Amino acid sequence: MGWLDWLRPKKKPAASEAELFDEAFQRKLEYLAVASRRLFAGRMRAERRTRIAGSGIEFADHRPYTPGDDLRALDWSVYGRTERLLVKRFEEEEDLTIAIVLDVSASMGFGGRARFDHARRLAAAMAYLSLSNLDRVTMVAVSTKVVRRLPPARGRGQIFKVFEFLRGLEPSGETALSEAGRTLGAELKRRGVAIVVSDLYDPAGFERGINALRYQKFEPMVIHVTDARDADPGARGDVLLVDTETGDGREVTLTPALVARFRDAHSHWRHEVEGFCKARRVAYAQADVEGALEEQVLNLFRRSGLVE
Amino acid sequence: MEWLGLAPSQLAWVGALAGAAVVGLYLLRQRRRRVLVPFAPLWARVLEERPSAKLFERLRRLLSLLLQLVLLGLLVVALGDPRPAGASRRGRTTVLLLDASASMSATDLPGGRAAAAREAARRIVRAMGPDDRMLVAQMDAEVTALTPLTDDSTALETAVTAYRPRDTGLDLSRALRFARDVLRGNAHGEVIVVGDGAYPPVAEDVSTDGSALRFVGVGRRGRNLGLTAFSARRYPLDRSRCEAMVELQSWSDRAESVVLTVSVDGAPIERARLRVEPGERVQRVIERLSGGGERLEARIALEDGSRDDLSVDDVAYATLPERRRARVLSVGEGNRYLEAALLLDEYLEVVDATAAQAPAALSQGRFDVVISDGAAVQVPPGVGWISLRPPPDGSPRPVEPGLFSAPAGGAIVFDRVDRRHPVTRFTSDLEEAHIGRVARYRLAPGDRVLGSGSAGPLLVAGERDGGRFVLFTFDVRESDVALLVSWPVMLINAIDWFSGEDGAFQSSYRTGTAWRMPVPVGEREATVETPSGRRVRVPVMEGRAVFFGTEAGFHRLHSGGSHTLVAGNLGDPDESACAPRATLSVGSTRATAPLPGRPGLRREWWVALLAAAALIVVAEWATWHRRVTV
User: Fold this and answer.
1) Cβ neighbours of residue B217 under 8 Å, at least 6 residues apart?
2) Do B32 and A201 make contact, defined as CB atoms within 8 angstroms?
3) I need a labelling partner for B65 at 20 to 30 A (CA). Which of A45, A171, B48, B405 fits?
4) Which residue in the set B30, B40, B50 is minimally distant from A250, CB to CB?
């Protein structure tokens, strides 16, 4: 330690595995609920609502009677006034399956563990919110393939299994998000929301991963973990750029102009991702690793429509 | 254009080698830094958009190489110290000789003459013109260049500051020869002497050979009394006592009363009041001094308590040889002449033995000298040996059988005596000896005949098995040698010679000369520790350590695990006569006052070359750190 230490940029210390999810963080998340644009039918009643002619309590609207409808759902008072046969529809609260897809490729460990820890906290937060709303939560860690999977679970008490699941992960391998879509499609009978937590550095293209979820009838939500340092490698001069995931190298002379061009390209790519998601009505939010995670969960996600 | 630094051919070599190294390094494939990126495909997208970038990078690297070569070229050219053509010929080349002799220690000026000389020298250096070059040297008994020939006034002033007078005389001839050699071939050469001018006359042939001779005198007066000689010796036949000789001289312009004090090992043993007239030289011999000490010191002081202008010659030093008891084994059947002669030296411990007892005696005790009187004795290596007519057999130096007798009515006499040898010193009556019979001795390599007559060698000295020997080819009982004064003197001389107590012992040496100091037999190197604490390794030649003494005082000569004291004195009347002179003449040349240099700008291109190189480095550094050229 020297007297020049105060000049050096302070790095955010990496959280130990035990400190990843502290109690204060959990308490803040309790009152949040996951928003969903679509309603899914569930086996169990929950706080999620679907408009079906059924046994719900809260009236929603009418629809014309068609043969085969439950006669008990006919609104006789309307028939008395208008002589039209209408069936009452009620909103029924049902449970929702939420799959959290966490990218554990090597790029998530780039520049230290800050990015990976941040992503794991985000995933844990989403899982906690879902479990608190009595949603059914499953977790998938994916890199080149699905590395690990947590079976669907329900109830707030399952959060510790989630923590356990997240603590055991290490970033390695290449990104292949489409593998997650294939695995979830094959193993989950019920479709639901798939929340992707990733830096989206997929050599095959981030579109393939998101589309794979959409084609499997999941409603994807994208939490794009970003880091400003990705846009500037810091070094200048003749260097060998090495890809963290593939190890491929490329000799480059890094000039200020080239770095500026790359910064623009990186920004353009982020807008490209955002535009892709918007065009397909995929909820999208960026989460910078330098940002306060609690604030991101409470404000950023609320603004992006991910939480109520 | 002229090159005052490295020659153009040398510069070409340096440039070629350094340039080859730079190009070689350039051609070597650069090992690039590894920089990890999270997603290389994004970089690929950017790099593919600019196809002309590689060409630009190549050009930039080429530019970088060119810059390095230009930088190297500037530095190489600067090493050559280029000047406009004729600049060095226009300027003066000066040899500044600073008088560092003992008289410059005089205190007739505030701070001493040396301080005044320094100040004068600084003024001369500061008055140099832009094209002038100078070499600073100090001159005393030898000449020491303090700088190379340079125009760097800072280096010259530093050398002037470092100049210190020494306790030696001055050899102006040598200094002028040195200056003449330095200035050879320079059209505008000049020699500037800064000193007190109190020098002995210099012959014409060592004048400055066409170069101008300048002189700057320092000093105000020369009231001085000095000890010009001081020596001491032990009495040859009474080693416990010694006598000392002191010589002092006055260069004062009035009669002075001085007190002379002689001390032995710091204790005063003699004190005398002397009145010395102007220019008078006084010699005093102090007899029958106790010889128990080793260090003798003579000191003069003005009786009125004032001090003269030069203190270095107010004290003189001398040493006495160590007197140690020598163990002598005398082997023979009894020789009263020998016994009587040995009794004269009370520092001898004599053991008598017959030839049969000699081996047992030698095995029981360590002897410094073995004297064999007609007996065959195997003398141990390293032990001195005096042989009085050895037998034909069994002796380390046998004689031939048979004796050569003097003709009837006549005698064999010493026709030739070599008195340069320590053994035959002080033997003036040896030629008066008459010898009856003589053994014939065949000389061996290294033997030296000290005395010879018609019958061949009579007295021989030499070395054998690491020890010295003296051989008489006759029996003293068959001669009247034993009745001469030379007989005991030769024996004592021989014993002294064996033990290193040379009769030519010098009690003091004069500074500014080569001291030849005896060292123990067989030693090949020695170290001299000066009064100021400086230790100097000195060579040993012919049994003597050779050292150029420049300090007055007691020195220690270390050799062979022991040490001896050596005294050094200024002892130079020319230096003690320290009255300054305003002018200096060398032969028919009269020195003039120095002239200031021509004013002007110094045309040293190397400064501009280095500045240009520095600018390139700074520009490269700045652009590199601002990421412009990378």
Assistant:
1) B195, B196, B197, B580, B581, B582, B583, B584
2) no
3) B48
4) B40
Mark yes or no for CB contact B36/A235 under 8 Å.
no
Q: Which two tokens stand for residue B617?
A: 């480095």
Nearest to A202 by CA among A261, A245, A139, A262: A245
Q: What is the pLDDT of residue A2?
A: 42
Who contacts B236 (Cβ-Cβ below 8 Å, separation ≥6)? B426, B489, B492, B503
Q: Which member of B33, B38, B628 has the closest CB to residue A239? A: B33
Number of Cβ within a 10 Å radius of residue A32: 21
Check if B446 contacts A (Cβ < 8 Å). no
Q: What residues of chain B score a pLDDT lower than 70? A: 29-30, 49-61, 85-90, 203-209, 236-239, 290-293, 322-324, 500-504, 521, 597-603, 624-630
ipTM at complex level: 0.75
Distance from CA of B74 to the nearest CA of A (A): 26
Per the CB < 8 A criterion, the answer to whether B82 and B3 are in contact is: yes
pLDDT in the model for residue B413: 92
The tokens describing B361, both together, are: 């005696």
Q: What is the pLDDT of residue B29?
A: 60
Which residue in B493, B520, B322 sits closest to B421, CA to CA? B493
Q: Choosing among A198, A241, A246, which should be mutated to test the B contact, i.e. which has the most B CBs within 10 A? A: A241
Q: How far is CA B106 from the centre of its chain?
A: 24
Residue A60, pLDDT above cutoff 90: no
Among B34, B42, B627, select the one facing A265 at the smallest CB separation: B42
How far is it, in rounded angstroms, from Cα B386 to Cα B402? 21
Contact state of A246 with B40 under an 8 Å Cβ cutoff: yes
The answer to whether B504 and B315 have CB atoms below 8 angstroms apart is no
Instruction: Give me the helices (H) in B143-301, please.
Output: 153-162, 172-183
pTM value is 0.51
Q: Are B35 and A244 within 8 A, CB to CB?
A: no
Of A47-56, A168-177, B432-441, B548-557, the least confident: A47-56
**B434, two tokens:** 């008459």
Q: Measured between CB atoms, which of B35, B44, B46 is closest to A235?
A: B35
Flag whether pLDDT at A153 surpasses 50. Answer: yes
Percent helix, strand, coil in chain A, to 5, is 40, 25, 35
Are A264 and A232 spatial neighbours (Cβ–Cβ below 8 Å)?
no
Whether residue B437 contacts residue B406, with contact meaning beta carbons closer than 8 Å, is answered with: yes
CA angle B236, B242, B243 (to 5 degrees): 110
CA distances to A215, A285, B66 from A185, in Å: 9, 24, 64
Q: What pLDDT is stored for residue B52 in this prediction?
A: 54
Cα distance from A9 to chain B (closest Cα, Å)? 19
Residue type, B410: G
Write down the pLDDT at residue A37.
31
Q: Look at residue A52 and tell me whether its pLDDT is greater than 60.
A: no
User: In which region does residue B94 sit, left (phi positive, over 0), alpha (psi from -120 to 50) or beta (all else)?
Assistant: beta
Cβ neighbours of B620 in A, within 8 Å: none
Is the pLDDT assigned to residue A24 strictly greater than 70? no
Q: Are B450 and B421 in contact (CB under 8 A)?
A: yes
- Which residues lie below 8 Å from residue A141, measured CB to CB, with a gap of 6+? A102, A104, A147, A148, A149, A165, A169
Give the minimum alpha-carbon distance from A8 to chain B in angstroms, rounded to a whole number: 18
Q: Which two tokens stand for residue A66?
A: 């068609």
Write out chain B residues lying below 8 Å of A240, CB-based: 32-35
* The pLDDT of residue A253: 80
Stated length of chain A: 308
Distance from CA of B618 to the nearest CA of A (A): 18
A250 with B628: Cβ contact below 8 A: no
C-alpha separations of A77 from A82, A85, B47 in Å: 9, 10, 73
Radius of gyration of chain A (CA): 23
Single-letter code of the amino acid located at A44:
M
